[in-house]
Amino acid sequence: MSVSIAAMRALESQIKTLDKAIEQQFEIIPNTLTSIPGIGKVYSAGIIAEIGDINRFQSQASVAKYAGLVWTQHQSGEFEAQHTQLIKSGNRFLRYYLLEAANSVRRCDSEFRRYYDLKFKEVNQFQHKRALALTARKLVRLVFRLLKDNRLYIPPKG
Questions:
Q1: Angle at Cα 45 formed by Cα 142 and Cα 89, nearest 5°?
Q2: DSSP 89
Q3: Most exposed of 27, 82, 105, 119 (fewest Cβ within 10 Å)?
Q4: Residues 6+ away with beta carbon under 8 Å from 135
Q5: CA distance linking residue 37 with residue 101, whole number of Å
Q6: For 49-62, b where at least 16 C-beta lie within 10 A, e where not — what string?
Q7: All structural domains of the chain with their residue ranges
């Protein structure tokens, strides 16, 4: 038991050291994503590292597809399925950072919280996962625009 506790403490120490190293390296890069409430240096660094140069993407939809935050289509003629899944392809690390950042942002920003709550109440199954994926999709639109225009986030009044 004491060996497990010592190992956990060592891992926690390594995590703190890595977070500090990320923050130091990240100060060199001009960053607009940390202006979003709830996104710290680690999430921001992860998102920027996985996206790379934002100019290689035509639109926010292409960033979302690259991250795997789009849904499969099931349709035939007039029929279109209501229940579809997220695609399995895409950059799983970027998807992870965007989902975690969206979860953090929804706690800190009233607009994202309102959007999450609205999407959460729309369905009876998989409420949190669906609402979080849609909130992450909304975050992709914001991230794309902030990185493309190289500007800071100004929360809406109200």
A1: 70
A2: -
A3: 82
A4: 102, 103, 105, 106, 112, 115, 116, 119
A5: 10
A6: ebbeebeebeebee
A7: 31-149
Question: Mean pLDDT per 10-residue run, the chain (158 residues)?
Answer: 90 89 72 85 88 91 90 71 73 93 93 93 85 93 91 78
C-alpha 39, offset from chain centre: 9
**What SS3 state is found at 76?**
strand
Rounded (5°) CA angle 5-8-12: 140
> Whole-prediction pTM value?
0.77
CA 23/CA 110 separation, integer angstroms? 27
pLDDT for residue 82: 66
Judged by DSSP in three states, 31 sits in coil
pLDDT of residue 81: 64
Residue 113, pLDDT score: 94
End-to-end CA distance of the chain: 52
Q: Do 107 and 38 meet the contact criterion of CB atoms below 8 Å apart?
A: yes
